[in-house]
Amino acid sequence: MNKRREFTKAVKVEIIKRASRMTFNYPRPYCEQCESSADKFEIDHITPDGLSVDKSAPLTAKDGMLLCIPCHKEKTASDVASIAKAKRIEAKHIGADRPAGKLQSRGFPKSERASKIARVKIDKHAIPALPRKELGK
Prior knowledge:
The chain is an alpha+beta fold. It has helices spanning about 10-20, 70-95, 110-120; strands at about 20-25, 25-30, 40-45, 65-70.
């Protein structure tokens, strides 16, 4: 259901060709974000796949970009944050973020002893006052 879509091998080759430049008669891929040489790279979705609406459409080279490893880590972290924010906004919009009402239990049943103590009425005036210390002695 929420399966992440992957680029086909042909689309990956097209993205790599787009990001390559000829240096010393050898095509070399460059990061499309920071434009540094990318010996090790990742192909990443431009729009995070978790935010895409139409998942039935096939992925093309316009949907991806070649990133060096540091840029890919940074973009992945920001993508995860933006997907989480979108999910929070969606949950708030449909009302799933707040409980329906305050849940309250019946409480514990009172023990027999507790109910007897509660029935006994104490006359507060019959209790002698505590002796007070007089000041100055």
